[in-house]
Amino acid sequence: LQTNVPGGNVYENLLTIYHSPDNGLSWQRLNTTLDTQENFAAAQMRGNGLYTLLSTIPYDPFTTGWNNFGYIIPETRPITTELASIMNHYSSIHHRNASNDSWSIYDPAVTTNHPAFAPLVNNLMSFDYTQAYWITVTQPITLFMAPPNDAPTSLTNRSQSLALQFPPATYFGWITPTANIFTPTIGLPVTAWIDGTLCGSTTIIPWQGRLAYNLQVDSIALFGPSNNCGQDGKTVTFQVGSWTMDHNTLWHNDHAWYHPLNTTVCTTPTTVNTFNLTPDNNNLLLTWTTTNADKYAVYHAINDPYFIPPTECLPTLNCTSVTNPTLTQTNALTNPDNNYTFLIVAQNNCGTDAPASEYRGNFQFTIIPGN
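Predicted structure:
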């Protein structure tokens, strides 16, 4: 039967007995005693089921997390077929095309959880001979592949490390416009930023009648100068054109991540100009005109008419944040020796501040008889 062994003598020493307890739905690799001189293979039986003698090529064992390996089969084969032995134990697989510095990815979870995006995101469909690949696995495991139909003279390049950069993180999803405010269009840039560094860019595309994007965000450089890009736990900020998106996310590259993009309606606030102080018993009532703001930082000081406001609005720093254009400063008129000065900064929820208002204050003093 030696002529029936794939590759003849090249793969004869890789023969192993396999057992299927469920009529071929799953297979278990058995500890096999092999004698290639006598053409003999034996293994302890596992009970009823199917048994078969197969020749499989084992790769160096993978450890949990990222692993880099070279594809040694001198044929082009589908990704899903070649990874069948570790099905449900890998998260994603990446390949870097050195000629144009681009990455391809296959993530089975995209097909399962977001099938509408699978043709857009999963663009790595086959293994090519001598190419290097990154794979992330969920447990220590060994990958087995079928030998080629035409055997090479020997097995070489078992674990090539040709990719000197960790794979990027991949994000994809819909881009939802907001009428009259956020109006993205096909071809508009979509960019990803980490600590102020541009780490990925793409453009809006039409997808199934809607606007969508598919963006890869670079990992930190393994060699050479740092690019200040992706590491686990770093925050990724997305922009569409000049709009900053609402929802940041953490950088992770073990999966392709569904991450829809949209933005809150934010108008630019203007300076508070109409600003009044009205006595109310021992209190001062502050009122002003609204200025397209979502909130107002009201600062005050005592006996310091030209104070410099702090950079944060906290009660401990004599600042109160309000959403309505009014504030009562209680007991501001109790002590005639304390003169209050106020200024107001209009703000929106996107972090934009208008220039501060003019200073407004009350002035009071104690009347001393005879003076």
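Summary: The longest strand covers residues 90-97.
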